[in-house]
Amino acid sequence: MAFEAPKEKFPGRIREVAIGATKELGGTRRARLVAGGSNGLQLHKFECDVPNRPLIVMDVVDTMRVVPEQLVQSIGPVVKDPVDWAKKIDREWGADLCVLKLQSANPEEENRSVEDCVALLVEVLKSTTVPLLVYGCGFEEKDAKVMEAVSNAGKGERLFLGLAEEKAYKSLAAASMANGHGIVAFSNLDINLAKQMNILLLDFGVKPENILMDPLMAALGMGLEYSYSVIERLRLAALLGDPVLQMPMICDCSCAWAAPESLEENPERGRPELRGIYWETMTAYAAIVAGADVVIMRHPQAVAKLKAALADLGGGS
Amino acid sequence: MPTAMEIYKLLPRKNCGECKFPTCLAFAMQLANQKVALEACPYVSPEAKIALEESGAPPIRLVTVGAGELAVKIGDETQLFRHDKTFYHPTVLGFIADDAHGLNAMKSKIDSAQAASFERVGQIIRVDSIALRHSTGKVEDFAEAVKAAVSQKLPIVLMTEDPKVMADAVALCGDRRPLMYRATPQNLDAMLGLAKACCFPLVLGGASGLDELSQMADKAKKAGVNDLVLEPGGSSAGTMLESMTAIRRAAIKKRFRPLGYPTISVVGNSETDMMRASLGVMKYSSVVLMEDVPREFLFGLMALRQNIFTDPQVPIQVKAGLYSVGEPNEKSPVLFTTNFSLTYFTVRADIEKSKLPVWLLVVDTDGQSVMTSFAAGKLTPESVAKAVETEKVKEKNVRNEIVIPGMVSRMSGKLNELTGMKIVVGPRESSGLPKMLKSISG
Hints:
The complex is a heterodimer. Chain A is of the alpha/beta class. Chain A has a single domain, classed as Dihydropteroate synthase-like (TIM Barrel), CATH 3.20.20. Chain A is 38% helix and 14% strand. The longest helix of chain A has 19 residues, at 272-290. In chain B, α1 crosses α2 (24-32), α4 packs parallel to α5 and α10 (271-282) packs parallel to α11. Classes of the chains: A alpha/beta, B alpha/beta. Chains A and B meet through α7, α9 and α10 of A and α8, α9, α10, α11 and α12 of B.
């Protein structure tokens, strides 16, 4: 008997969501990049459409407080200046997108002013052409002001603003809707919460094509298996036809650098920095194999390794 | 398992009652529920017996490689997605020692595979096998390496397509039950003869596609060789994902017997090869053999394997006890959390960010998180007080104060009553710990 490989056909499809606006579209970015669009399991090219490859975002953090010492040595001194850091991402490190994390707005830490945050964004917009995402510091009251100003300053650029959370999404949603930006809907490792978050945003008036969902990526060794299964289940639910879950998924894999094992001194496990690079690469690779459409990363060498791996998997550029 | 009606059709239908059940149908129902053994029927035909054993067998055969304490079991998976139940048998990782590099290099590779073992979250994780490959080197070196590996404990994979070389190597292995790699369409008959004689598991590979591979497996089965491992091969991670997915689906969803065996992926040591090894761990490779890979990668790969093969119903736990973060003294703050590994590592990482020395009391909650165990009544003022006592917290620390997770502030009163310690309600999220610790230490 001739063997025929069993194929899976799904009724649903992941939505296409575009990030960034070019000159023609009213922005200044070099590209409008599309995430999602597949009607099957991630990169199962042998049985479904894969119109868009997974996208790689690199992050810029505006405070050294959260950047491990080792990264300053390996990524270089640019990490001390967010604009220089963004330029590297824009021109040298091969990322598709950049996320600016305005953590220094945190009122309990640096408490950087709204004006300073916006000034940084404007400078980054001026110095780069890579499509951008902008994340606030996680304090609702402060973020409400910061993100409103960010939305205005980035008018026409089709930024993606984050992170919208169940208890704090209205001001962010309003900011994203005001100037045609997108929004990143965050939920905490729970398929029902992910759905709830999307429903809240849709009810608020956000269009589904303006939503990316972040189901929380736990790093390798730090509960990766939970995220892996939540992502798989979200993707399957979307493919089985749940329209509220058909937004592309974005996973922040820079969390790999906060995993104690990635950088700990332990000679039998090799050099910390290189271990960290593999730690981040494998975290992102697992996120994509499970079903993520967009991954956020930090180390240029990890990005290079992931790009090679994705090309090998049939999802490269 | 077949249904009672399917079984009934294969029974003699005499209703003799000698099986202690009144009718053959009643007996079939018991069989379907696995309450009785088929042997209870004295009249079942040999054909029916084979058919029933066949249909009752697991969709993917369980194969054992190696012998003794480090023997590994592969296959016997029942799911495509770990969240549907679990993946049972973690991917076996092996190092390849090739005779092209000479005997000494092979011996040091055997030693490094044997030594590659780490403790991680309370479990020992290790390289599980050593593969010896005869390629362009001297066959005498290969034989010597086999002897060296036999004197160690790791399961062995013998890699040669020359049946004669394989037969000689097998003869050196005694009862160590090596995995023979591999039979191809060209040497199939000779390799099957060898496998039939020694009863060791055999890899089938080198086929032009899954159709040919399944025909090889069919032929092997007819020859009486049942312990098989399939190597679909492939020139990229994409083809690997495709063929591994096809095999797993065919075996589990279609019950397609010729592909109902464990699988193997052999990779090199380039960057893309390493990520193929990672893909194998996630997507259905029962065995992954690698050439030299950096230990920085190897440790991550093992962590990935441990994560993916964690039973979703049984969370990984850390050992309960009093942990020191930094070098705490009798005046350092005392915090408690649960023994769910994810909770523990997150809390610990956040404490470390404060760069302050702290005592962290880990309370046994059967691996549940703070909120879950509190709701389930596993994290109670009593269980915390008991941990304070067993771990002699008060002897090691004179602060007489304990920081509790903000989520369980409700236990403050009772805990204070039971321990006599001052209760400090910590932040609801551990990310607030650095700030909080600075304020109570300063």
